[in-house]
Design a protein that fits this description.
170 residues; 22% strand; Aminopeptidase; single chain
Amino acid sequence: MVDISNQPAKMRIATADDVHLIHAGLMTIARHLGAEGKVTATPDDLRRHGFGPQPAFTVLIAEMVGEFAGMCLFFQSFSTWRGQKGAYIQDIVVEPRFRGAGIGVALLRQTAAHVRAEGGTYLRLSVEAKNISAQHFYERMGLAWSGQERIHAAYGEDFEALAGQHESGV
């Protein structure tokens, strides 16, 4: 066990060299939710989509005592109703041994500061319905649950059917 008392977390933006850390963070989330088999992304996928000429996401990494302590993966979004830029947090995780050390709070605050510095005015995220501890954490941090919205998604065969190349859709 690492002594983390009175140790400040160091925050930095991930580079392509961090894809294995990012992937490990995603697997930590999946294990917590009992969904390891649902993760099909590879470190190469993360490298290709996150660190090429048009990065699809940004990752803020937290380190304590020189070790990976957590991360927040997010991407830019735009609210057409507000007419403002913001960000959508796709994944946030704190390594189990660093939980309770303020890493999650620091990651959210630093992500918000980064988004604000880029001209953004809001954060959004979704959380697994069964991840009650995360829901309570987000509410404590001021991210309110929106009962007016529902997330709808199409993946795999459903997405392919929706995107049918030879169908007009009308």
